[in-house]
Design goal:
single chain, 5 helices
Protein backbone atom coordinates (compact mmCIF):
# COMPACT_ATOMS: atom_id res chain seq x y z
CA UNK A 1 0.00 0.00 0.00
CA UNK A 2 1.44 3.36 -0.97
CA UNK A 3 1.16 6.60 0.96
CA UNK A 4 -1.76 8.06 -0.99
CA UNK A 5 -3.79 4.86 -0.66
CA UNK A 6 -3.28 5.06 3.10
CA UNK A 7 -4.06 8.77 3.14
CA UNK A 8 -7.22 8.65 1.00
CA UNK A 9 -8.82 5.21 1.14
CA UNK A 10 -11.73 3.98 -0.99
CA UNK A 11 -14.06 0.99 -0.74
CA UNK A 12 -14.24 -1.06 2.43
CA UNK A 13 -11.81 -2.08 5.17
CA UNK A 14 -12.23 -4.57 8.00
CA UNK A 15 -11.78 -3.95 11.72
CA UNK A 16 -8.28 -5.40 11.83
CA UNK A 17 -7.07 -3.10 9.05
CA UNK A 18 -8.70 -0.10 10.72
CA UNK A 19 -7.07 -0.83 14.09
CA UNK A 20 -3.60 -1.80 12.83
CA UNK A 21 -3.18 0.66 9.96
CA UNK A 22 -5.09 3.69 11.21
CA UNK A 23 -6.29 3.87 14.83
CA UNK A 24 -3.17 2.59 16.59
CA UNK A 25 -0.56 4.41 14.45
CA UNK A 26 -2.44 7.72 14.64
CA UNK A 27 -2.92 7.27 18.40
CA UNK A 28 0.77 6.51 18.97
CA UNK A 29 1.78 9.44 16.79
CA UNK A 30 -0.51 11.74 18.79
CA UNK A 31 0.97 10.59 22.11
CA UNK A 32 4.52 11.08 20.78
CA UNK A 33 3.59 14.58 19.56
CA UNK A 34 2.13 15.44 22.98
CA UNK A 35 5.31 14.19 24.68
CA UNK A 36 7.40 16.31 22.28
CA UNK A 37 5.29 19.40 23.02
CA UNK A 38 5.63 18.85 26.78
CA UNK A 39 9.38 18.20 26.49
CA UNK A 40 9.88 21.39 24.47
CA UNK A 41 7.79 23.42 26.91
CA UNK A 42 5.06 24.17 24.37
CA UNK A 43 2.33 22.79 26.61
CA UNK A 44 1.76 21.38 30.08
CA UNK A 45 -0.17 18.22 30.94
CA UNK A 46 -1.63 19.86 34.03
CA UNK A 47 -2.97 22.85 32.12
CA UNK A 48 -4.42 20.59 29.39
CA UNK A 49 -6.13 18.43 32.04
CA UNK A 50 -7.58 21.54 33.70
CA UNK A 51 -8.78 22.90 30.36
CA UNK A 52 -6.76 26.09 30.74
CA UNK A 53 -4.68 25.90 27.56
CA UNK A 54 -4.79 24.07 24.29
CA UNK A 55 -2.33 21.67 22.81
CA UNK A 56 1.04 22.75 21.48
CA UNK A 57 2.01 23.31 17.86
CA UNK A 58 3.35 19.79 17.29
CA UNK A 59 0.11 18.11 18.41
CA UNK A 60 -1.90 20.57 16.34
CA UNK A 61 0.21 19.94 13.23
CA UNK A 62 0.06 16.15 13.62
CA UNK A 63 -3.70 16.34 14.19
CA UNK A 64 -4.24 18.40 11.05
CA UNK A 65 -2.01 16.12 8.95
CA UNK A 66 -3.69 12.95 10.26
CA UNK A 67 -7.27 14.26 9.92
CA UNK A 68 -7.76 13.30 6.23
CA UNK A 69 -6.49 9.75 6.83
CA UNK A 70 -8.65 9.43 9.94
CA UNK A 71 -11.77 10.65 8.14
CA UNK A 72 -11.05 8.45 5.12
CA UNK A 73 -10.49 5.32 7.21
CA UNK A 74 -13.62 6.02 9.26
CA UNK A 75 -15.67 6.39 6.08
CA UNK A 76 -14.36 3.15 4.58
CA UNK A 77 -14.96 1.34 7.86
CA UNK A 78 -18.54 2.63 7.89
CA UNK A 79 -18.87 1.49 4.28
CA UNK A 80 -17.91 -2.01 5.42
CA UNK A 81 -20.95 -1.90 7.69
CA UNK A 82 -23.17 -0.63 4.86
CA UNK A 83 -23.43 2.84 6.38
CA UNK A 84 -22.91 6.18 4.69
CA UNK A 85 -19.90 8.34 5.55
CA UNK A 86 -22.37 10.93 6.83
CA UNK A 87 -22.49 8.84 10.02
CA UNK A 88 -19.08 10.35 10.85
CA UNK A 89 -20.98 13.46 11.90
CA UNK A 90 -22.22 11.59 14.98
CA UNK A 91 -18.70 12.14 16.31
CA UNK A 92 -19.56 15.82 16.73
CA UNK A 93 -21.98 14.99 19.56
CA UNK A 94 -20.02 15.52 22.79
CA UNK A 95 -18.87 12.29 24.51
CA UNK A 96 -21.70 10.06 23.26
CA UNK A 97 -20.81 10.65 19.63
CA UNK A 98 -17.15 9.72 19.96
CA UNK A 99 -17.94 6.58 21.97
CA UNK A 100 -20.65 5.51 19.52
CA UNK A 101 -18.35 6.09 16.54
CA UNK A 102 -15.56 4.10 18.21
CA UNK A 103 -17.94 1.19 18.86
CA UNK A 104 -19.33 1.26 15.31
CA UNK A 105 -15.95 1.49 13.56
CA UNK A 106 -13.73 -0.44 15.93
CA UNK A 107 -15.82 -3.20 17.44
CA UNK A 108 -18.82 -4.08 15.28
CA UNK A 109 -18.43 -6.59 12.45
CA UNK A 110 -18.90 -5.47 8.84
CA UNK A 111 -21.42 -6.82 6.34
CA UNK A 112 -20.55 -10.40 5.41
CA UNK A 113 -21.42 -10.07 1.76
CA UNK A 114 -21.24 -7.38 -0.87
CA UNK A 115 -23.08 -4.14 -0.24
CA UNK A 116 -23.51 -0.92 -2.21
CA UNK A 117 -19.89 0.04 -1.43
CA UNK A 118 -18.35 -3.10 -2.94
CA UNK A 119 -17.37 -6.64 -2.01
CA UNK A 120 -16.18 -7.48 1.49
CA UNK A 121 -12.52 -6.62 2.12
CA UNK A 122 -11.59 -10.28 2.62
CA UNK A 123 -13.35 -11.45 -0.55
CA UNK A 124 -10.83 -14.11 -1.53
CA UNK A 125 -12.31 -16.78 -3.80
CA UNK A 126 -12.56 -20.23 -2.27
CA UNK A 127 -11.54 -23.47 -4.00
CA UNK A 128 -13.75 -24.16 -7.03
CA UNK A 129 -15.01 -20.58 -7.20
CA UNK A 130 -14.26 -18.26 -10.07
CA UNK A 131 -11.97 -15.39 -9.08
CA UNK A 132 -13.63 -12.04 -8.61
CA UNK A 133 -13.36 -9.73 -11.61
CA UNK A 134 -10.94 -6.85 -11.35
CA UNK A 135 -12.69 -3.58 -10.55
CA UNK A 136 -12.84 -1.03 -13.33
CA UNK A 137 -10.18 1.66 -13.03
CA UNK A 138 -11.35 4.97 -11.70
CA UNK A 139 -11.68 7.71 -14.29
CA UNK A 140 -9.03 10.39 -14.18
CA UNK A 141 -10.15 13.54 -12.46
CA UNK A 142 -8.90 17.00 -13.39
CA UNK A 143 -6.81 18.71 -10.75
CA UNK A 144 -8.76 20.89 -8.36
CA UNK A 145 -6.54 23.90 -8.87
CA UNK A 146 -7.12 24.15 -12.56
Amino acid sequence: MDFWQWYVRRGRIDRRTWWLQYALPIGVLSVLALMADVALGNSSLESIAMGETGYGPIVTTIGLLAAPASISSGATRLHDRGMSAWWLLIGLVPLFGQVALLVITGFLRGDGGPNRYGPPPSAAPTVGQQPLPEPAPEPERPPYWG
